[in-house]
Amino acid sequence: MKEELISKKELLEQTGISYGQLYRWKRKKLIPEEWFIRKSTFTGQETFFPKEKILARIEKIKQMKDDLSLDELANMFSPNPAAVTLHRDEVVKRNIVSKMALQFYIEQKGEQHIFSFAELLQLYILDQLLQTGEISLEEGKCVFDVFEKHYASFQGRSCELLFLRKMGIAICLLVANGNDVYVEEKAKIIVRLHVPTCVEQLKLMVSEG
Length: 209
Fold this sequence. Notes:
Helices cover about 45% and strands about 20% of the residues.
C-alpha cells in the first residue's frame, strides 16, 4: 500500500505558497523533514511529498498562522505531546471522547480521575475507531495494548496505527510512518491511522478549553 506523492512544483502551484514559505515552515518543524522525499526522475533529483498529508498540513497552517505564532504551531504539530493532564469531568464536558469509550477505558484500566495526554490519546483513537464502526469494543483492547507496550518506543517519531483482520481475527500494530505495508491475500487492512494527525486534533481540542 503506497502513499500517493506530489512533486514540490505541483505542491507550490496547488497551494499558492512560495518556495521560501515551504522551507521556512520546514526549518520551524511545522512540516516534518521526513516528508521531503528525494527521488530520481528523468530530469534529475526532485523532491516529493506524501500528497494527502502535506496538503492537509499546509491548509491547516494557512488557516491558523494568523492566530498562532510559528513556534506555537510547531508545538501543536509536534508528535511529542505536551505534558497535559485533564480531569475526567473535563473530558466529558468538552466531548473529547464519547461516554461509551470513557466507560470502556475505565472498565479496562480501573477507576481514575486524571488522564495524561498519552492516556487521552489512547481514548481518542479508540473513540475515532468506534465512531466509524471499524472495530468493536472488544477489539479496542488491542489498541490499548499496542499503545501501552510500544508507542513510547517511537520517542516522538511519526507512526501509524494499522488494524488488520483475517478470518475474523484482529491484529493491531504500530509502524514507522511512511513504510510500505504488504499483507497476505486473506488479510485485510481495516484501518490505517496517522497517529500525529490524531495528536494534532487532540491538542486542538484540549487547548480550546
